[in-house]
């Protein structure tokens, strides 16, 4: 059972001022979860969660996370600019990019962000642009398959990210020669994981590598960045990851591998996006059409331009018809958007209560990789983002796009003369 964080009455009141579709975030949920993450890793003195900005690049959201002690993980020029505007500075910014353009490296360096090199060749590329900083990080890819128990979780050998072990060694050796003094190791091996053992297993691999690199190169390993990948239960029958158990699992591996080597000062970093935000955002849309052909369709005023995950990955997003929470789910619908693209379906063969035109559909868990993945195909405009504040008030974090926004890259000044 999944429960919306607003009732039909609350939603109706919001809609009087802000028409659907829109994304709505829950400040209370975001703050409570961020505090829990910090508690789970409070055993580690240097712990910091660098929120993956790409998940929700919305200043009002980043501000809340900053207040809760998080940093920002950026991977592009504009994400760096957002982080800067929100007031993140220097080592509160992790720059974990790949195939990085020169100007992005220059801005990251100017901001004093921690540079995370995705590739061995990026070191020489960076050196042409700026001096190697004292603190640097390299991204590791162990290759092969990454397994937890008997389930293959992901396939690092097929992923474009990171360096081989030999490249890590050679990279750190060169960086040390060029003046780097403090080193970080980063890796992202599996996405959307549901097991509490993912971070501990990844930590073990990275801690063992850290010990090896420290011994072989006589360098100071300052931090291990476990990156993102902790999942959330998108389906009602799934169980949530237990962040306290995850933190405890990492602590055990830390005590087992790093502490005996005199490496008890290594900071643990994370770069979670989904776990920090997905459950604390939802998309509200209105049913504007019903269609009866070979299947039963409900058409929403939202489309994949507002929430792309179902179209892109076949991702499941739970739905609640507001006000009908207690009704039997005895109707089968495809709930769709209006793109001229048949994958624009938020739900396929979904059991729901009978939907009437005008019903408000609450789509769960859109807080991360939701609005941010949106696009403008078919000339569709991206929706507003609202915040349900802790005091119950609504704040507009980002207005909905207008045709002027869509046409801003043309010179259509004549068309919009009033
Ligand atoms: C996408 C990404 C993350 C966040 O991933 P989640 O699945 O949202 O936890 C973190 N770090 C990097 C480098 C990423 O690309």
Count of beta strands: 19
| Cα Rg | 23 Å
Beta-strand content: 15-25%
CATH class of the largest domain: Alpha Beta
Structural class: alpha/beta
Mean pLDDT: 96
Name the helicity range.
25-40%
Q: What is the name of the CATH topology of the largest domain?
A: TIM Barrel
How many discrete domains? 2
Small molecules held by this entry: pyridoxal-5'-phosphate
Question: What's the total helix number?
Answer: 12
**End-to-end distance, in Å?**
50 Å
Using the alpha-carbon principal axes, give the shape.
globular
Q: Which sheet architecture does the biggest sheet show?
A: 9 strands, mixed
Q: Are there runs of 5+ residues with pLDDT below 50, and where? A: none
Known CATH architecture of the largest domain: Alpha-Beta Barrel
The CATH superfamily of the largest domain is identified as: Alanine racemase
Q: Care to describe what's here?
A:
- Helix 3 (59-67) crosses helix 4 (77-86) and helix 8 runs parallel beside helix 9 (243-257).
- This protein has two domains: 41-272, Alanine racemase (TIM Barrel), CATH 3.20.20.10; 281-407, Lyase, Ornithine Decarboxylase, Chain A, domain 1 (Beta Barrel).
- It contains twelve helices and 19 strands.
- The mean pLDDT is 96.
- A hairpin with an 8-residue loop joins strand 15 (331-336) and strand 16 (345-352).
- The strands form three sheets. Strands 1, 12, 13, 14, 15, 16, 17, 18 and 19 form a nine-stranded mixed sheet that branches.
- The chain is α/β, with parallel strands linked by helices and 418 residues long.
- The longest helix has 20 residues, at 198-217.
- The termini are far apart.
């Amino acid at each position: 059972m999944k429960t919306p964080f607003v009732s039909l009455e609350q939603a109706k009141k919001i809609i009087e001022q802000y028409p659907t579709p829109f994304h709505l975030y829950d400040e209370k949920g975001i703050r409570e979860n961020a505090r829990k993450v910090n508690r789970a890793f409070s055993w580690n003195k240097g712990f910091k969660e660098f929120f993956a900005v790409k998940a929700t690049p919305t200043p009002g959201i980043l501000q809340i996370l900053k207040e809760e002690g998080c940093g920002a993980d950026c991977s592009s020029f504009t994400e760096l600019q957002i982080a800067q505007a929100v007031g993140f500075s220097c080592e509160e910014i992790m720059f974990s990019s790949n195939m990085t353009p020169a100007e992005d490296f220059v801005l990251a360096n100017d901001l004093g962000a921690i540079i995370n090199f995705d590739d061995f060749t990026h070191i020489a590329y960076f050196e042409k642009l700026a001096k190697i900083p004292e603190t640097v990080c390299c991204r590791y890819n162990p290759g092969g398959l990454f397994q937890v128990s008997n389930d293959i979780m992901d396939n690092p050998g097929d992923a474009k990210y990171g360096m081989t072990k030999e490249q890590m060694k050679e990279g750190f050796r060169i960086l040390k020669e060029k003046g780097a003094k403090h080193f970080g190791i980063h890796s992202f091996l599996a996405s959307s994981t549901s097991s509490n053992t993912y971070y501990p297993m990844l930590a073990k691999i990275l801690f063992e590598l850290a010990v090896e690199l420290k011994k072989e190169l006589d360098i100071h390993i300052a931090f291990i960045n476990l990156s993102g990948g902790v999942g959330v239960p998108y389906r009602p029958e799934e169980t949530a990851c237990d962040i306290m158990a995850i933190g405890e699992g990492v602590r055990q591996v830390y005590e087992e591998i790093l502490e005996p080597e005199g490496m008890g000062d290594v900071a643990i970093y994370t770069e979670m996006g989904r776990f920090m935000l997905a459950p604390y955002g939802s998309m509200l849309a209105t049913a504007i059409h019903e269609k009866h052909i070979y299947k039963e369709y409900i058409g929403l005023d939202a489309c994949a331009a507002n929430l792309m995950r179902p179209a892109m990955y076949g991702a499941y997003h739970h739905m609640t018809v507001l006000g009908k929470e207690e009704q039997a789910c005895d109707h089968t619908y495809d709930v769709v958007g209006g793109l001229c693209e048949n994958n624009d379906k938020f739900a396929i063969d979904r059991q729901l209560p009978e939907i009437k035109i005008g019903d408000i559909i609450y789509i769960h868990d859109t807080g991360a990789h939701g609005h941010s993945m949106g696009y403008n195909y078919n000339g569709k405009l991206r929706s507003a983002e609202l915040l349900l504040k802790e005091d119950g008030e609504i704040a507009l974090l980002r207005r909905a796009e207008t045709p002027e926004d869509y046409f801003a890259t043309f010179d259509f000044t004549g068309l919009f003369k009033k």
